[in-house]
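Thread: "does anyone have the structure for this chain?"

Original post by V.I.:
We have the sequence but no experimental structure in hand. Need at least a predicted one for the grant figures.
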Amino acid sequence: MISELKLFRETWRLQDEKRWQTRLTGKLAGSRAVNFGVGSIGRETARLLRSVGVVVSGVGRRAREDDPDFGTIFGPDRALEALKDADWVIGLLPLTEETTLFYGAEFFDAMKPQARFMNLGRGESVEENALVTCLEQGKIAGAMLDVFNNEPLDQNNPIWEAPNIVISPHTSSYYAEYEEDMANQFLGNFARFKAHKSLQNVVDKDLGFVPSER
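Reply from O.Q.:
Generated one for you, tokens below.
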């Protein structure tokens, strides 16, 4: 989000061209974000955004008005309404029958022209052709995607050529100490298992994901 507002891509291009070109950039504080997905990742994202002055709401399975991290959480029936004022639309949904191709033409049409769409949840939640068409027609300001319908992304996929798009190869969850942290998480759960304590990050097999505690 900072990269988009501070025009990093243009800055890097100007640096390659050895051009000093001062210009006005955007401000993150005061902008509005809506998280589609209010589980542990969505909550941590909301806390980080709020700490830098972003106004955050969410869309989850159950509507409520007094959530400590989001304030307002819209239910599924008001998902499009939640987009009305959002500058940032952040996709963090798990993949279920209900969320497959959730972000389609009607969804993107409901976003305001200045808004940007980000997806770090599951690629299969996005109707990619609809997103490409939306970007080509300039209906939204841009998109940042880390996950896709098919990975690795085929070189002939038109999404590569879509305007105002940032593509990363499913790396948002990977970092240098990733394997060590995963091993420690397993060992922690194994110790809890041996001690007959409840486990952490347990997938609800009916829902298809780890449900939020709230």
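V.I.: this helps a lot. The mean pLDDT is 95.
O.Q.: and Residues 178-194 form the longest helix (17 residues).
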